[in-house]
Design goal:
Layout: E1 8-11, H1 15-21, E2 26-29, H2 34-46, E3 51-60, E4 70-78, E5 81-84, H3 87-96, E6 101-107, H4 115-125, E7 129-131, H5 134-144, E8 148-156, H6 164-168, H7 178-187, H8 192-216
Parallel strand pairs: 1-2, 1-3, 3-8, 4-6, 6-7
Antiparallel strand pairs: 3-7, 4-5, 4-8
InterPro entries: Hopanoid-assoc_phosphoryl_HpnG, Nucleoside_phosphorylase_d, Nucleoside_phosphorylase_sf
Pfam families: PNP_UDP_1
Domain Nucleoside phosphorylase: 41-186
């Protein structure tokens, strides 16, 4: 990995997202939740970096956005708090990803899985998608005065509920707990069709995420002016 320029830290929730994020000038960080994530990220940013990007998949909130839609965040909102992304970095990402949509992302401390909850969150502020890392990343980047950006891809459409077993399969370390899913299916086999559909959507989202990562290039297109 090149160390000629300060690293960009790419924050993700899952290990597969971190593997896609990895590249020249990028330090992936994943496998933390809630308070532990905030603590680990705060410690990491104290060491300095060129910028922090929230990168990965997100739950769809806008009903017009299908799985695989690439979103360049312009701001992140959680409750009453809202943090804008770096304007220069966001503009650079939009140039690198001309087919992406841009707009507000929502941050949530827990999974948003029901259609009703997705609709309520979208109607509250017009957020396009939701994830569980961006709001923490935005807040801590703001505290440290470090440029912040967000690049997310829709994995589940706004009009589709997320099967409970999909959430149960998200291990705390960022991996997928296959055993928990299999054991859960033995008790609730009716969730299988929803899991299979989510699996197809996840494949599209992962492919779009990888394409977006390649298009963004070294350091996720962070311009020197923003760093």
């Amino acid at each position: 990995m090149s160390t000629a320029q300060p690293l960009v830290v790419a924050l993700s929730g899952m290990d597969f997202e971190a593997r896609i994020a990895a590249g020249d000038g990028v330090e992936p960080m994943y496998g933390h939740r809630d308070v532990m994530l905030a603590r680990a990220l705060d410690i990491r940013l104290m060491q300095g970096c060129a910028g922090l990007i929230s990168f990965g998949v997100a739950g769809g909130l806008d009903p017009t956005l299908p799985p695989g839609t690439v979103i360049v965040g312009t701001a992140v909102r959680s409750g009453a708090q809202s943090f804008s992304t770096s304007p220069y970095w966001t503009a650079a990402l939009r140039r690198a990803l001309p087919n992406a949509v841009s707009g507000l992302l929502a941050g949530s401390d827990g999974p948003v899985t029901t259609v009703a909850d997705k609709q309520a969150l979208h109607e509250a502020h017009g957020a396009l998608a939701v994830d569980m890392e961006s709001h923490i990343a935005a807040r801590i980047a703001h505290t440290h005065g470090i440029p912040f950006a967000a690049l997310r891809v829709v994995i589940d459409a706004a009009d589709r509920a997320v099967p409970p077993l999909a959430v149960a399969g998200m291990a705390d370390d960022g991996s997928t707990d296959v055993r928990a899913i299999v054991l859960g299916l033995l008790k609730a086999p009716t969730q299988l069709p929803g899991l299979l559909r989510l699996g197809r959507d996840a494949a599209a989202a992962k492919a779009a995420l990888a394409d977006a990562r390649r298009a963004a290039g070294p350091r996720f297109a962070l311009p020197a002016l923003a760093a």
